[in-house]
Every structure is written in C-alpha cells, then in structure tokens.
Design brief:
Elements lengths: L3 H22 L5 H23 L2 H20 L5 H4 L4 E3 L6 E2 L3 E2 L1 H20 L15 H32 L2 E3 L12 H23 L17 H19 L3 H23 L5
Antiparallel strand pairs: 1-4, 2-3
Helix pairs in contact: 1-2, 2-3, 2-5, 3-5, 3-7, 5-6, 5-8, 5-9, 6-7, 6-8, 6-9, 8-9
Length: 279
C-alpha cells in the first residue's frame, strides 16, 4: 500500500493545528475552541500514524483501551486512591462537555493521544518495533515483568509532559485541586497516577498484541521511514503549545521543568531509531 500521501497529510494537519493557536492569541477565538480543535487535529494525525504502525483494527483497539481506562481512572479518582490521599480535582467547563457531569470528554482523549506517542517512543527506545508482521516474543512471567518495567518508562515520559500541562491548565482555570501541593500548587500524588495508568495501559495493550500476534511496525517496514518518528514531533509540539500558554500565564519557569526531561527522552528515541540493535 502506498502511504506517501498519508505521511504528508500528518505534516499538513500539524501545520493546520497552528491556526487556532494564532487566532487565540489574536483574541479571535476562545481557549475552549483552541483546545478542542488542536485535540481533534492531533487525533487525526495519530490515527493516520497508528494505522500504519499498528493497523486499522489495532489502533482502534488501542483507543478503546486507552480511552476507557483513562476515563475510568479519572471518574473514580484513580480507583479511589485519589480520595484516600486527598488528591482529587474538579473540572470547569473550559474543556467542554463532561461525562456524567464530572470529566470532560476531551480529557481521556488527550490521555489516549499522548499515550500512543509515548507508547511508540518507548517501543522504539527498547527496540520493540518490528520491520515485519511477525511476533518473536512469548508470553511469560519474565516477559510480563519486562513489559511492566518498559511501561514505567512510558509513564515517566507522560509525567515529564504533565510537568508543563497541569500547572498551565490549572492557572487557566481548567480544573482545581482539592488540596494545594508543592509543585505549582499541584499535589505530588497526581504524578503517581501519571505513571500507574500508562503502565496499566501499556501492559494491557502489549498483551493484546501478543494474543493477536501482530507487533507494532515501523512505517515503511524494512525501509524504516523517518515518519515513524512523527510521534516525537507531536510529543515535543506539546512543549510549544503549552509553552505559549505558560508565557501567556507568566509561568515561564515551568517550561524548563518539562522541556529538559522531554528533550532527553526525545533525543534518546531519535538516537535509538538511527542506531537499532542488531538481532
């Protein structure tokens, strides 16, 4: 199947995502419209990318798993753990309509989008993306423990991202924490969930891929197209998008906290992509 047009469409959609940002800073549209518009455009990019690395069915399953579990965690405050440690929040209408009046529908979608990016980045980092539709890994206790450890790296990538997202959106009034924490007013227990949930989703989806015997592939297969690395572009685009909002909210210092670890992860993934292990 020819995918050149699909790959260029990702670049086009990313460019279009800049339009609502420009309109917002010209005070022509609201933050709600910007966030929802950019989220939809990122969703289209990820669907295109995922259809090539996972396949249409698998990317659909990924979104069902990631969206459902993210919504479950958000709605139950981390399966009740957030309530125990006093780490809960309430959402305003800034992010749009809410599920049962509590969780904006866009929140689990954002989880799913960035989870796909970090899932793919982690698989590149640990040389787990294949050039062909074959599965060599076998389900076992050792395999499961390895997947958990690898999933933790995905969680750390997500935490790095939230070091920027959470302070900025709280400052904008997207949600309010029940108690004030030590990181720009955010409870540190929040970041435990940002590791735990990615690990759970990484493990569940990895088990699914093993059961259907379909690994994640490089775009281009044996030719290993550089478009596979587009997930890194999306990951770093978050720094640019929320960095602009951070400047607008006079929170420039928070950019550094996120940019450094995110930059390190991005560089490691790119190096790994161009220097894969020889099997």
């Amino acid at each position: 199947m020819r995918t050149g047009g699909l790959n260029w469409s990702m670049i086009f959609l990313l460019g279009v995502a800049g339009v609502p940002l420009v309109l917002r800073f010209l005070l022509l549209i609201s933050d709600t419209i910007v966030i929802l518009s950019v989220t939809v455009l990122f969703f289209l990019i990820v669907v295109i990318h995922g259809s090539q690395t996972l396949g249409a069915r698998e990317v659909l399953v990924f979104f069902v798993i990631a969206y459902s579990l993210s919504l479950l965690y958000e709605y139950t405050d981390g399966l009740g753990f957030g309530g125990v440690v006093g780490c809960t929040c309430s959402y305003s209408m800034l992010l749009g309509l809410k599920f049962l009046g509590k969780i904006p529908y866009v929140i689990p979608l954002l989880w799913a989008l960035f989870l796909y990016c970090t899932f793919t980045m982690t698989n590149i980092l640990f040389n787990r993306i294949s050039i062909q539709r074959t599965v060599e890994e076998k389900l076992s206790i050792k395999w499961f423990l390895n997947i958990v450890v690898i999933g933790i790296v995905t969680g750390l990538m997500m935490v790095s991202l939230d070091l920027l997202i959470d302070p900025v959106l709280v400052s904008m009034g997207a949600w309010r924490w029940s108690v004030s924490g030590s990181y720009y007013g955010i409870p540190l227990w929040n970041y435990e969930i940002w590791v735990e949930l990615p690990v759970v989703i990484f493990v569940v989806f990895s088990v699914y891929l093993q059961l259907v015997k379909k690994p994640q592939m490089y775009i281009g297969g044996r030719s290993r197209s550089r478009y596979t690395l587009f997930v890194v572009v999306l990951y770093l685009a978050a720094v640019c998008i929320f960095g602009l909002y951070a400047v607008s909210e006079q929170m420039q210092s928070v950019i550094v906290w996120a940019a450094i670890p995110m930059g390190v992860f991005a560089v490691l993934v790119v190096i790994r992509f161009f220097r894969p292990s020889i099997n």
